[in-house]
Each structure stands twice: as C-alpha cells, then as structure tokens.
C-alpha cells in the first residue's frame, strides 16, 4: 500500500547473535537502507541501559573490555533474578523507547512517524516473547551468525590491550568464558543469558562472515516493504519444507523436520540451477509395516497417549540403568543411604538430574529422529542420496550424524543449534560443523548454519496477497515510490494497541530497581 508520510508506523527491530558477532554493522546498514523508505532509525544498546539498574557499579568494571563484557553479563543476570523475569532488559528497552518517543513527539503515547528503533541486542528468549506480545507485527528480529573460531579471535583482540597480545592465554580464556556464558549462562538456566535459545526465534538469519551480510540486510528490508519480485531462495524453500514437516511431529520436547534435496547445477559451473526434494522426515513413533504414525489412525500408541496411562518407557529404562549403577556402587561399599533401597534412591535422584547429560541421552527414546526418518523414506522408495544435501530444523544429534555420514550426504543445513549433540566430538575427522555457506568438501560433510528468511515469516514476506498487482503496484512503481510504502502487515494505527501494552508491562519495572521516570513515561 502507498501511504502518506504521516501514516507510516513505527518499527521495532531486534538484533540477536552470539558473542563476537558484528551486529553493529547490521545496525548501521539498517539505518542507511531504511532511509530509502523515508524511515529514520536509531540504535538502542541494551547493555548500556543496564547502567540504570540499581545494582550497577561502574567501579567494578575495570579498564579492559573483557571485564566490562563479563560484568554486564553478570549484572543482566542480577537484573533478571531481582525482577524474576527473563525479559527484564527488554522492559528497560521498552522504557527507553517511550523516553525517546516522548522527547521527539512530545508524548510517550504519540508515535514517531516513519521511525525505527533498533534494539542491539537481545539475549534471552523471554525478551523476544515479550516484545512480540507488546508490538505484534511491528516487531521483527534479525539474527547474525559467524563461526565460533572467528568470534573467539575477534573477542580476544577486543579483550587484549593491543592486538599483538590477543593470543595470550589469559585473553583467549576471557573470550572463551564470554562466549560460553553468552550461549547459556549455566549458573542460572532460568534467568541467565541464553543466546543459544534466542537465536532461532529470529525472523531473518544473516551470515556476517563475508561481504554478503550487507546485501542480506537490504533484501530483508525490501521484503519487509513488499518488493513485488522477491521470491524464496532455494535454501529458504527447502528449510520451509523441513519446518512444515516438523509440525507433523507429536514430540512435545522438540519438533524436528528434515528434507533431503538434490541440487542441480549449471553446466560446467558451481552455480545452483534447481533443487528437488526427494525425501521428508520428522521425529515420530515408527509404525509396523513402514512409516510413522499419523494422528488419524486407530489405536494411537504414540508417547503422549502412553504417558497419559502412566507408561513412560524411556524414564523406566533410565531408572533401571541408574538403579543398576547405584547397586554396583553400593556393593563396592561406596553408598550409605540409611537403609533405603537402591531403586528408591534412583527414583529420587532421577528428579534432580533434569538437564544433565544422563537425562539427555536419546538412545532410549521411541521416536525415529527426523534425519533418520528422511533417510529411511528415501531408502523405502529406492532413492539414492549420495552427494545430496539435507535441510533440518535442528543440528543433528551424534547418532543421526553418523548415519548422515554413512549415507554419503555432502552437506547439512540446520536452523537451530543443538548443544547436546556430540557429533563434532565423535566425528571430528568426518564433519566440518561451522562450514561457510554453500561449502562442500571432498572427504568431509559440511554442517552449515541456515541463512535467509525464517520459515515462520514465509507467508508474511512471500505471499502475493499484499504485494505486486494485488497491492496495485508493479516492480517499476515500487522502485519509484518506495519512499511512500508501508511495511507489510503493520497497520497504520497499530500504535494504539501497543501503547497500552507498553504501559501494562512496565508496571512490573519498579523505579526502586531500575532508574526511569515512571510518572511522566507511564502517566495514569
């Protein structure tokens, strides 16, 4: 839709990426490219807002960059703990948005026309959840990716007093700690920093390893404003098919989908020409006679149906294994527990082992994993998969990885990381776990992080219902009149609802914990 300048709604753009990723570059490109659509934009450093938290003590930071980053990670943890809210920094960002808006427009409840707030950066899944609840379609999340080795080197250089000392074990160690705590601050799984689970919630994924990152940002903005000729890339189509397959799964722990694709290349060229999907899989219970169970078959014996009857077979096996282990320890005279039976001890202990490697062992689960289901699907139909590729919504576990290797697949493109996987550790000689986009190797399988439009945004960004001729604008007109365009599915009056949402959620941000002018920014 073409609109008048006074009708352009605000946008809230979140950024997420693991420690060491150059998200500042993404912010700069966004600011410049949004100008083409007559949007102004500014970046809000979420870590900078922590200075308003009452527990922030500048004297504890020190002079080095590594110490500053670690201190900010710890302060953010304290902030979340005190509010008992994983989204505490996002609440601070909402308060800052209202402050900036009030300064520019005269009221925190008067929208800034054609303006975008870039939140750099989000570190907890609850932050994304809250921002989507508050802003709806006006909020989008962009994720940036770079290999861990490159990020580690970059952080070590930032931590060191000068680049020549960046290989010093002290600064390398600081970089490792920052990256590990950023991925998952294990000291407090509920309120600690958790980029690992925040990253896959993004609407768009960008590889910042090379110069392609800038073009990717530009493409996302074009899509957001309804470019009439932007259609999915091959990898986006394949991942969307994998994601769609995942929705068939009944596994409430993690729905996973996978597809195997055959790439076709231009003659005498590495350039992709086409792809065809040859097999599909999802994690689900196998059915005798071949295939997996569907919901509409009689006598559904999938895990949820069995557990309703108190039949949890994976848990029973783990209890048995633990009982056997405790029995051996007891017979060696190493266990004294006041006359309790070892099976009773095992049942009590099992409750306290949630999240441990022992409980995450997948060998005793009943579902076929999505990757294996896709391989079996191809085998049942006699389709060879040598040198083909797999697109999967989650990084494969070590068990699936070894079968992927044996099947002869050349590359695996994954959407979500899976920290429980031991694939790299067990098969270091056979896989490259952070291979660059499009990479293939003669003697190794390339595992590649997905880039492009998130499957969850496919309908919004690729449907022609709100762009092209149905929007009353051609590609030529779009180029000529893009400064007058509205972002897709962001209503002109959307601010009326999210102003109420802002005020409502900010009730849980007390001035005794976070310094802000509640009276003027959230008047009664």
List the helices and strands and how they pair.
Elements lengths: L10 E6 L6 H12 L5 E6 H4 L15 H19 L4 H18 L9 E6 L4 H11 L3 E7 L2 H12 L9 H15 L11 H4 L5 E4 L4 H13 L9 H13 L10 E9 L6 E11 L20 H5 L5 H19 L10 H10 L18 H11 L8 E6 L3 H10 L3 E6 L6 H4 L4 E2 L12 E5 L2 E2 L4 H5 L12 H7 L13 H11 L12 H4 L3
Parallel strand pairs: 1-3, 1-4, 2-3, 4-5, 8-9, 9-11, 10-11
Antiparallel strand pairs: 5-12, 6-7, 6-8
Strand content: 5-15%
Radius of gyration: 25 Å
Structural class: alpha/beta
Mean pLDDT: 88
Q: Major sheet, described briefly? A: 6 strands, mixed
Number of domains: 3
The tally of beta strands, per DSSP, is 12
Number of helices: 20
What is the terminal-to-terminal distance? 36 Å
| Uncertain residue segments | none
Shape: globular
Fraction of helical residues: 25-40%
Strands of the biggest beta sheet: in what spatial order? 2-3-1-4-5-12
